[in-house]
Every structure is written in structure tokens, then in C-alpha cells.
Amino acid sequence: MSTLTKPNHIGRKISRIRELKDMKQEALAQALGTNQQAISAIENSETIDEEKLVEVAKALGVSVEAIKNFSEENMINYFNTFADNAFSNSQGTNFGNSNACTFNPLDKLLEAFEENKKLYERLLQAEKEKNEYLENSLKGK
């Protein structure tokens, strides 16, 4: 048992969740309004008071229960469910969910081109009006 981590070591769970979220101790410290050394102390603690745990959970974007119930095995099972769903759709293909386009991408491209053309024409007309106004104001002086 000496080489295995204790299953209820809350600090290690916090550390692992933070790592899975690709967050550094400094970032968590900043979110909690403390310093990196305090986060290191929390992650080395086997227990943590409930109030601090609520703050840490909020900063990590998870629930308190998620921290308390965290285990590597649960994480592996959780991610395996995504893999199972991605490879078992109703059509029997192994390429994830089949999403059919409900529009023609070329039509959308042409619509965008036409919209840009209209905007350019409006901009050009505004520039012509501005030049005309400036010329008239110079003639008036």
C-alpha cells in the first residue's frame, strides 16, 4: 500500500483535475487570490476544509462532488464512453456522427460574395458623397 496513492487524498485529486484542465498552480492561485505556494500546500494536503474546497471547485470549474469522487479509473471510463459513441452510430460507419449539410457551401460562399459586393458599393458611394461635400465646402470659401 505504500506505493499506491491513498484513494481519498483530496489534494492529489485537486492536483490531477488541475492538470487535466491544463492549468498551472499559478493560474489556480490567481483565481483563488493566493500564491503558488498555498496551492502547493493544498495539493499536498490529505484533507481540506469544506469552505476552501468549494472555492477550489469553483476556480477549477467543477463541482465539489466531482473533486471528492474523482478517480483515474472513472476518468478513463468517462473518456471511453465518448470513444464508444463516436464509433457506433446508426449507419455502422467508423467515422463518428454523420452530419449532412442542409445547405450548399458554394451557395453560402456566393451569398457572402454578393454581400461584400453590396457593402463595397455602399462604401464607394459614401466616399463619393464625402468627396463631393468637401469639394463644395472648398468652393464656398
CATH topology of the largest domain: 434 Repressor (Amino-terminal Domain)
Annotation field: number of helices: 7
What is the quaternary state of this protein?
single chain
CATH H-level homologous superfamily name of the largest domain: lambda repressor-like DNA-binding domains
Please give the CATH class of the largest domain.
Mainly Alpha
Shape by Cα distribution: elongated
Provide a brief overview of the structure.
Residues 106-137 form a coiled coil. With 141 residues, this protein is mostly helical. The protein folds into two domains: 10-86, 434 Repressor (Amino-terminal Domain) (Orthogonal Bundle), CATH 1.10.260.40; 103-141.
Entry keywords:
Cro/C1-type_HTH, DNA binding, XRE family transcriptional regulator, mainly alpha, 7 helices, 141 residues, elongated, 2 domains, 434 Repressor (Amino-terminal Domain)
What does this structure look like?
By secondary structure, this protein is mostly helical. It has two domains: 10-86, lambda repressor-like DNA-binding domains (434 Repressor (Amino-terminal Domain)), CATH 1.10.260.40; 103-141. Helix content is 67%, strand content 0%. The longest helix is centred in the C-terminal third of the chain and has 36 residues, at 105-140. Residues 89-95 have low confidence and may be disordered. Residues 14-67 form the HTH cro/C1-type domain. Residues 106-137 form a coiled coil. This is XRE family transcriptional regulator. GO terms for molecular function: DNA binding. Keywords: Coiled coil.
